[in-house]
Amino acid sequence: MELISFNGQVVLVTGAASGIGKASAILFASRGAKVVCLDLNEDGLKAVVNEIAASGGSASYKTMDVSSQEAVKGGIADLLKEHGQIHALAHAAGISGPAGKPVEEVEWEAFAKTVEINLYGTIWLTQALLPSMKANKYGRIVHVASIAGKEGNPGMAAYSASKAGVIGFVKSVAKETATFGISINAIAPAVIRTPMNATVTEEVQKYMVSRIPMGRLGEVEEVAELIAFAASKACSFTTGFTFDISGGRATY
Fold first, then answer.
1. Which residues, in sequence order, are bridge partners of residue 189?
2. Cα-based distances in Å from 80 to 46, 64, 150
3. Which of 190, 202, 210 is CA-nearest to residue 155?
4. Does residue 252 form part of some domain?
5. CATH code, domain carrying 44
6. Is residue 47 predicted with pLDDT exceeding 80?
7. Is the Cβ–Cβ distance between 21 and 93 less than 8 Å?
8. How many whole angstroms separate alpha carbon 150 and alpha carbon 140?
9. Which of the following is catalytic: 61, 138, 159, 207?
């Protein structure tokens, strides 16, 4: 139990106002973490922090735009000053981007914004946290990628490309940080029942579910359990890996 406990640890969760991020924040708090919830949706953040507090957990929040390098650098610097050490990051913030169009019809602004939020945000958060984690000889970083980053989803080229980038980034950084007591891993969900996926067209969602051998959507609580393991002391000899949580869609 001690290895999966977060007692005495500060854990950052991005995208914490809803979906996978919210479920992860609640789970971390239930296991003793001081959770810092990050998102652009302040009302959603307040609701999550209140829910955690009502259950006896410890949580605070900070609004952050992960598509802004300046906001990420400044926000992480402030949190390090406030807390001294950040033990783990669970990065679940992201957007689905343009969907249902062939790639040649996708406006570049929409494509670039998807990559900026999903990939650049991942990079900037990692860069901001690593110096402190290296100095402390401990850290756990978990980035939410996607099965789309392994296999690609038709009509979702921007999203698939951004998540493939996350997977490649994680593999590379893991090899750089392996001797510092830091693990960095990715999670590759198939389609999960989240507010983000509610915006995906019915046709695209049917395609994604049809590819899942279990024949159903995943639930945010299921993803949160895997994130919590990868962010815990128990995940001590796995780094640079992409954990599949896809109901059997991906087996590699």
1. 245
2. 21, 15, 34
3. 202
4. no
5. 3.40.50.720
6. yes
7. yes
8. 22
9. 159
pLDDT in tens, 150-164: 989 889 999 999 999
Is 250 within a domain?
no
What is the rounded average pLDDT of the residues 188-217?
A: 81
Query: What are the backbone angles phi and psi of residue 237, rounded to the nearest 5°?
Result: -130, 20
Q: What is the mean pLDDT of the chain?
A: 94
Among the listed residues 228, 194, 193, the one whose alpha carbon sits nearest the alpha carbon of residue 90: 228
Lowest mean pLDDT among 13-17, 192-196, 215-219: 192-196
Assess contact for 181 and 139: CB atoms under 8 A. yes
Is pLDDT of 249 > 90? no
Q: Which two tokens stand for residue 115?
A: 């990559």
**Are the C-beta atoms of 170 and 181 separated by less than 8 Å?**
no
Which residue, among 173, 187, 144, 5, has the nearest Cα to 87 in the 3D structure?
A: 5
In sequence order, which ranges of 90-214 are alpha helices (DSSP H)?
108-115, 121-136, 148-151, 157-177, 195-198, 202-210
* Structural domain total, the chain: 1
Is position 49 within any domain? yes
Structure token pair of residue 24: 């992860």
**To 10 degrees, what angle do helices 157-177 and 121-136 make?**
20
Q: What is the extent of the structural domain holding 7? A: 2-245
For residue 126, being part of any structural domain is answered with: yes
Q: For residue 159, indicate whether it is catalytic.
A: yes
* φ, ψ (nearest 5 deg) of residue 31: -105, 20
